[in-house]
What we know:
The chain is an alpha/beta fold. The protein has helices spanning 34-44, 59-62, 65-68, 88-91, 163-177, 194-200, 202-205; strands at 3-8, 13-20, 23-27, 49-53, 74-78, 107-109, 113-116, 119-125, 134-138, 141-145, 148-149, 152-153, 183-186, 192-193. The chain is 24% helix and 30% strand. The strands form three sheets. It has a six-stranded mixed sheet, covered by helices on one side. It has a six-stranded mixed sheet with strand order 7-8-9-10-13-14.
Amino acid sequence: MNIQKLTLGYVQTNTYFIDSPSGLIVIDPCIATPQDYDAVCEMVQDKPIVAILLTHGHFDHIAGVDHLMQENTILYISDKDKDYLVNPQLNGSWMIQENLMINATPTIINSNKIEVDSFTFKVIETPGHTHGSVAFLLDKHCFIGDFIMDGSIGRTDLEGGSSLEMRNSLITFKKRFENKKISLYPGHGSISQFSDELKHNPYLSKR
């Protein structure tokens, strides 16, 4: 499986590109500058964008959506975060003095899996960073958004965040995956192994 990462935007957000039989699957596209746009175009080239998957609705994870949408592209987001796409107060773009509103119409995630081409992504609810935060598990690759990061977790003090929801999500995720080998692909920072996070991440090792 070919997975590539670009780190883009004002807050160094990770955008992931997965080769599929029909083109590319993109997770959390961030395009904030002309340099970001050029880097993404070089990555995409002339490949069709089959689907865009959003782990949550903050501006740095959705800013590239309209740039990448094509006629047959399907945009997926949780129902609880769909309003972030059109509300700068919710998506946080007001903090960088922009009013980001996505024009593309999303497909709401309404089950625990998404099938794209020959791939099946398991959808894991991870509320805490936002109410509608989700992770996408593809085989042993977990695209985790701003839920768990290398040695840390996502902040809970933004619109829609909840420290209680985050705590419960961490407990649930740990119980589900503590005996499984999975790689975590976070929204910021380095890719890591969940087994390493259990040992060294203070937000997980104490739970």
